[in-house]
Q: What sequence folds into this?
């Protein structure tokens, strides 16, 4: 009887628990729209200084370029804008959100500018149209020439408030250009604007990389005959030879903490991957194989390095553990895989694969699964490098009759566009960290 | 028998330790407690209660009239209002006198609720019958000539009416491409009145939800409860679980804000427990 | 054998040029540039030179060395490789045999072996490959009796093509090891 009672009680409890009624359950496993409808009004003049349409146009163009590249937005057609677009009101209460909602916009950018005694002030706001909230507001004060910089910085800010992570638009891209007839080091904005020549070696300069901690670049140059590794401070222009071992000193890559440099040395008659201190002393040899070992690329944790080796016959990507020196093979498909670049997010490794003489950019997970081809068609796409936030990739593409230029695309391979000007034969891009 | 059993029982008991009974009880209790605990709210286990799977059409947005989007379906809306009316007027009469015309009324009620395609299917099947029946009866029965004449007349009238209907249908009313499609769905028949409230809510809120894959970090999931009254007005909502990814959560708040008023009423005031995630988006990059 | 006799003839010819050159200009150790111009001038009148005595012993050692140098500078032929390979082909080996003869003859000459690649493939990989090519060349010459200390190697990868066209022929030309004589 006792047992009966107990079991009855238990069964009753179970029944009670099971019979709890639930609301109608619905699963929505993807959004209906995968872009954010964004309305961006023109900058309006505030107070003194009057109308400076050059500033308005440039700002608009730069910000729009960045936002379009992000792929996040569906820009609301400015032709459909209603009266609120021409009102300066930057305060939440001054905006007629209803108008914007009618146009289908979910986010709204408004801004004003003023010029006074050579100083440019731009005030910008990003609003959530639906909840009528201010998402981000910024005031930038700078020189008249800072319009682009301000636009890029605000684009970074917009991405931060809508995704939680800043955009990479106010960073820099270093690359090698043959504009002078010789391969020299250049630097430009992320949209290809303002290319500046950094070296005058009148030799061959190759393969730059930014220091993650200082405003500094490393690269390889034949200036003194041998391919040596150089370091250059960007603002002072100070330059020094960091590694001048007999043979190759190429493919230098700063570790994520900026304390070491992985590179290829061939001082012992064979190319191997080494770790250097920032003073140029050898810390460690990472590979030991008679095959070619080149192109190191750090993972963001700084404990693994992807590199290219032909130890299994054809050039393929391998990964070496910096501490245990254990080498694992990453790529098996294709006959020629080179120039690995580890995403700063750590999840994927980009590289280029040659098929029928044409390189295309691929990505793969660290464990060798989920390989994806990102670029297709004509033009050899080489030297992929990630943006510091892992959102974008840059690479060189020789689509234009054999002349290489720098291209940018989203990390999923969409939105590819050329950013470097024609006539440079530009290659070997490298993306700076946050500037 | 009794005693021997008892004896055996006692023998058995003597083998065990004195506290065995209690221990056994405790053990059973503990075992039973396990499932109880498992099903208790202390162990949330959402994966077991699989949310119902609905067909989600990502290409076509939910519309007030699911057929409106189809060009050939456009005129339908006007006609059904007219059509059902004349038919009942003609047909209810034949029903009481004779069982023969009964097949005819059958298609009639359906067009009422589902005005579009049903009649097409049924009518061709119905029409031939009267044709055959009428002549055969005339030849055999001589008595009920008058009735038959009446019948024939009615039949003919009905036939003509049927032909007219058919004509109208053939000229103006399209067939549904999928005959068995459920009411209210894209390929189905009928307007939003027949849409399942849950399916409607699902598609509607999904359409209000804007989120870019470039915003996605990891695999965010969130749950919210939405309470609607019969007018389709959102009374209140609450998040059962937020994803922790502010971009994701805010996109949901926006979607809910846009769903404050549904474009149609609900059969009753309803509560919806909605699971938001990006499974379908992230799986198909 | 044929190669050797040709080499011998070249050395002989160069020697004879030099002998006459030195006879006219005793201060033989001026700058290198001047010397070469002189030689080119002399080349235009070979008839005169033939008049001089070939077996002029007193000048022999130094003059012969310099002649061999020059012969080496001119005669060292480049070799070619297959795609993504640094193994010497038979054709390359026979060229290297003659190159080794020139280098052995000109003992004072130091040579820089440059490894090059065609434009296909990754730049860094090609730098390493070019180096392998230069090294393979050097090692083979060492096996033929050329002192290793006399040879340095450098790789230019795909940076210095001799034919910028994107054809099989151009690529074949660019996959090479060059020799540069230096003293």
A:
């Amino acid at each position: 009887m006792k047992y009966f009672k107990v079991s009855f009680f238990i069964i009753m409890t179970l029944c009670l628990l099971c019979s709890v009624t639930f609301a109608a359950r619905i699963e929505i496993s993807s959004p209906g729209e995968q872009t954010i409808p964004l309305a961006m009004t023109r900058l309006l003049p505030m107070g003194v200084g009057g109308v400076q349409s050059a500033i308005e146009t440039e700002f608009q163009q730069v910000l729009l370029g960045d936002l379009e590249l992000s792929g996040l937005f569906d820009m609301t057609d400015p032709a459909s804008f209603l009266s609120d677009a021409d009102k300066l009101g930057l305060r939440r209460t001054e905006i007629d959100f209803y108008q914007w909602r009618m146009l289908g916009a979910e986010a709204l950018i408004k801004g004003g500018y003023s010029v006074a005694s050579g100083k440019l002030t731009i005030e910008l706001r990003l609003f959530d149209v639906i909840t009528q909230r201010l998402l981000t507001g910024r005031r930038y004060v700078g020189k008249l020439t800072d319009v682009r910089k301000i636009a890029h910085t605000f684009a970074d800010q917009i991405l931060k408030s809508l995704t939680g992570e800043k955009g990479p638009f106010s960073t820099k891209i270093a690359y090698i250009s043959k504009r002078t007839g010789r391969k020299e080091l250049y630097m430009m904005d992320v949209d290809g604007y303002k290319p500046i020549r950094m070296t005058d070696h009148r030799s061959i300069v190759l393969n730059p990389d930014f220091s993650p901690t200082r405003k500094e670049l490393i690269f390889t140059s034949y200036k003194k005959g041998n391919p040596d590794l150089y370091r250059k401070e960007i603002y002072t222009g100070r330059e020094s030879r960091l590694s001048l071992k007999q043979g190759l000193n190429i493919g230098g890559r700063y570790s994520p903490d900026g304390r070491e440099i992985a590179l290829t040395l061939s001082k012992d008659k064979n190319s191997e991957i080494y770790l250097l201190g920032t003073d140029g002393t050898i810390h460690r040899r990472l590979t030991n194989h008679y095959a070619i070992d080149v192109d190191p690329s750090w993972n963001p944790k700084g404990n693994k390095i992807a590199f290219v080796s032909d130890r299994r016959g054809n050039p393929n990507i391998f990964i070496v553990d910096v501490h245990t020196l254990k080498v694992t093979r990453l790529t098996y498909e294709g006959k020629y895989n080179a120039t690995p670049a580890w995403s700063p997010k750590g999840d994927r490794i980009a590289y280029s694969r040659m098929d029928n003489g044409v390189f295309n950019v691929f990505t793969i997970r660290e464990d060798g699964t989920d390989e994806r081809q990102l670029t297709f068609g004509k033009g050899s796409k080489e030297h992929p490098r990630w943006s510091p936030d892992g959102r974008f990739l840059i690479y060189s593409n020789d689509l234009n009759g054999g002349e290489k230029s720098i291209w940018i695309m989203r990390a999923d391979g969409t939105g590819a566009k050329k950013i470097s000007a024609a006539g440079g034969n530009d290659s070997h891009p490298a993306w700076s960290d946050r500037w | 028998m009794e005693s021997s059993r008892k004896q055996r029982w006692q023998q058995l008991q003597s083998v065990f330790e004195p506290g065995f009974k209690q221990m056994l009880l405790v053990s059973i209790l503990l075992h039973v407690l396990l499932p109880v605990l498992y099903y208790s709210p202390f162990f949330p286990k959402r994966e077991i209660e699989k949310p119902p799977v609905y067909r989600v059409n990502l290409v076509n947005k939910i519309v007030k009239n699911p057929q409106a989007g189809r060009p050939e379906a456009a005129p339908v809306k006007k006609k059904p209002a007219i059509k059902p009316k004349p038919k009942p007027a003609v047909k209810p009469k034949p029903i009481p006198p004779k069982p023969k015309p009964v097949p005819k009324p059958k298609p009639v009620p359906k067009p009422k609720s589902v005005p579009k395609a049903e009649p097409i299917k049924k009518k061709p099947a119905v029409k031939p019958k009267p044709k055959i029946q009428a002549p055969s009866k005339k030849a055999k029965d001589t008595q009920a000539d008058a009735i038959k004449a009446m019948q024939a007349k009615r039949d003919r009238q009905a036939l003509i009416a049927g032909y007219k209907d058919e004509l109208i249908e053939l000229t103006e009313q399209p067939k549904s491409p999928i005959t068995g499609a459920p009411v209210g769905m894209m390929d189905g028949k009928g307007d939003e009145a027949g849409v399942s409230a849950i399916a409607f809510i699902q598609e509607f809120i999904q359409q209000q939800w804007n989120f870019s894959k470039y915003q996605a970090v990891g695999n965010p999931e969130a749950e919210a409860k939405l309470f609607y009254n019969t007018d389709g007005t959102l009374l209140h909502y609450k998040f059962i679980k937020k994803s922790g990814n502010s971009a994701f959560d805010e996109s949901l708040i926006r979607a809910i804000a846009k769903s404050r008023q549904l474009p149609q009423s609900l059969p009753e005031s309803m509560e919806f427990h909605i699971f938001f995630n990006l499974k379908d988006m992230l799986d198909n990059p | 054998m044929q190669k050797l006799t040709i080499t011998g003839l070249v050395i002989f010819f160069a020697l004879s040029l030099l002998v006459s050159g030195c006879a006219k200009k005793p201060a033989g150790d001026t700058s290198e540039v001047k010397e070469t111009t002189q030689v080119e001038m002399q080349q235009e009148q070979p008839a005169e030179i033939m008049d001089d005595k070939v077996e002029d012993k007193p000048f022999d050692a130094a003059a012969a060395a310099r002649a061999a140098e020059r012969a080496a500078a001119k005669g060292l032929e480049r070799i070619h490789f297959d795609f993504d390979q640094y193994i010497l082909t038979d054709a390359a080996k026979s060229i290297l045999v003659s190159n080794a003869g020139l280098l052995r003859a000109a003992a004072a000459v130091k040579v820089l072996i440059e490894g090059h690649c065609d434009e296909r493939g990754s730049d860094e990989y090609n730098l390493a490959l070019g180096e392998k090519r230069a090294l393979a060349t050097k090692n083979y010459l060492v096996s033929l009796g050329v002192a290793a200390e006399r040879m340095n190697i450098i790789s230019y990868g795909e940076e210095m093509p001799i034919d910028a066209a994107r054809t099989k022929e151009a690529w074949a030309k660019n996959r090479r090891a060059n020799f540069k004589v230096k003293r």
Q: What stands out?
A: Strands of chain C lie at 79-80, 110-116, 151-157, 176-182. The CA atoms of residues 79 and 94 of chain C lie 9 Å apart. The first strand of chain C starts at residue 79 and ends at 80. Chain C is about 55% helix and 15% strand.
